[in-house]
Write a structure and sequence with these properties.
The complex is a heterodimer of chains A (about 200) and B (about 475). Chain A is of the alpha+beta class. Chain A has four helices and nine strands. The mean pLDDT of chain A is about 90. In chain B, strand 2 and strand 3 form a beta hairpin. Classes of the chains: A alpha+beta (about 200), B little secondary structure (about 475).
Amino acid sequence: MIILADPVYNPENQTTINSATKLGPGITIAKFLGAYGDRTPFNHIESLSTRKRIARNLYPHAEAMKMINESPLFEDIRLIISEGVFQPKNFIWTGGVIDEKRFGRLVYYQVIDKEGNIDFEKTFDIAEYWKDYIEFDTLYLDYDSYNPDGSLTAQIGLKFPEIPSTFDVTMKNNIETWYNNNLMSKNELVEIRETE
Amino acid sequence: MTTKKDKIALREEKLGTGQELTVGVPENGMQNASGDLPKREYNYGPSLNKASLGTKVNRLAVGGGDVGVSLNLSPQRPSQHPFNDVNETPSGHVVEYDDTPGGERILIKHRKGAGIEMRADGSVIISAVNNKVEVTGGDQTVIVEGHGNLIYNGNLNLKVTGDYNVDVGGNYNVNVAGNKVEDIQENHRTTVTRNSIYTTKETRTTKTIGTHTDIMLSDNNQIVKGNQQNLVEGNIDIASEDKIFVSGKEQFAVTSKVSNITGAKQITIFGNKGVIGGKEVDYTGKSYYGSKGEVEAASNAIFYGTFKGVATEALRSVAADTARVAQSQTYGEAATSGSITAAQTSLTQESISGQDAPITPDLVVDHSINGSYAIRTVVIDAEDKLKNSLSLQDKYSDFFYKTPTIAEIRSALKSESVSNAIGNTLVSDNLLNPDYKSKTPPAIGRTAKKSASSRFGYQPIGNALESRGKRFRP
């Protein structure tokens, strides 16, 4: 399939790519750089081609965010980026998830309610909504109990294939549920709750 | 209805004035010429606006908060009829003046969700779903009695053409993930009333084109684990009102075209082995000793050359023809020895006794180990404990150089190697739940297969009321 990129936000039409470059209405590249889990400046990427590559990979993420932001179903929550573009500090950060996050293919989101807490119900709703309404490579519904107090955290990971300049890609639409970095289920989203 | 043949006078005559005035007005007041009203959601129901009845709440699009940042909005009481005056346009713009007891509010809302809401508790919510522009022609004053949270999920540029004054009553914390660059065109002054700590985990360079002056009114400690170089093109003055001590465990060298070492009261230069002197060097002093010190006839010294002066005794002399007095002459003869008496000798020769014990080789060794002039042993951060505590390199196996947040840990643990390498350390530091590898979730809720889920629509399909309960698949 070919992603129809909005010519206003298409990175291929930009002469420079920096953190202020917009990928959608109100969505800049900076949004994907300052994630709580992977705070990364854009300084380390010097070549325009690599910057464009990252911007292209982030473009479908911006579209996915826009879909949620504009939906009346999710008007009480805020979708934030918890893990965005990742800059490896040294050589030991290589392979797998690291490379996918490094170039903007894989981004993790959290769903925050009005009190500033994770909205678990809406997290599942959004994962299910994305599953039904957008094309992607893999969608991860990611839960963990990493917090020192053992409380639950939920994230949604969206992975897109490498987006070429033609925006011609093939999506696999895989869905997976993870708990504490263990694969719980494949081809199924499972909601995990703190209590029965 | 009127026709082109009708005349208002005839119609009034035929129908009566009251009926004529109502002709053309449909019996159902909800109908309108454009057909926009009534809306689908009002079909088969009362025409009164649902917001007026409280069955619908018009809200601004504010979304949620941010991680750890609450919007602090108290629940709004539903409107009661007939207290809520609602004015809604066909496209969905709404103005509400709500006098519901306990839920008094004013709402001005755009159909997209933007607008302003004044709530019963006095809160004011302003929402812009796209850009927001504020222009103030004159001065602007903002007074906030409570806390504030500013979150920009993009870049923030602040331009102040005049002075920028920040007055902080508490702490001022800046946390930068990338670089911090300060470009100051004139002077920079920092005054710290108490302590100041500056930690650089890699290289630090300071360049000064003009004069650099450090004034310390107390002690100054420079502790260097590696090498230190002080290279100066001009003069160096090192002066102390008290003592200066220089110790080099392996070597200490001073080289110059002209070297001066002066001990105004006393000078001591000693060593276990070596040479003092030079081709054109003169020696002056009170006495000279061999390595054994003041041991008669066995001081273990050898002198070559010509001596000028008077010897106390020449115990043996092969040719004592220039010795004034020789107490015994085993070999040879002293041509002039008999002409000067012993009494004369004691008057004319340089005779000094009662010397301090000279430094002997054994003492030299001891001197280098003990005492105030002993060679210093310098050990700095022997096991790199300080370095590691600062850089956290070893502690977190090069994955983190600072204490990580839980969000950073969550991100890092997606790599199995990180989990294996530093998982236990993070647990012991109370940064990670000890059960972080647990595979059993606390409880399971809904599930969704890969195929599209059926769902209720949130917009009515058609006019039929029953359509609202129908499900569809995307």
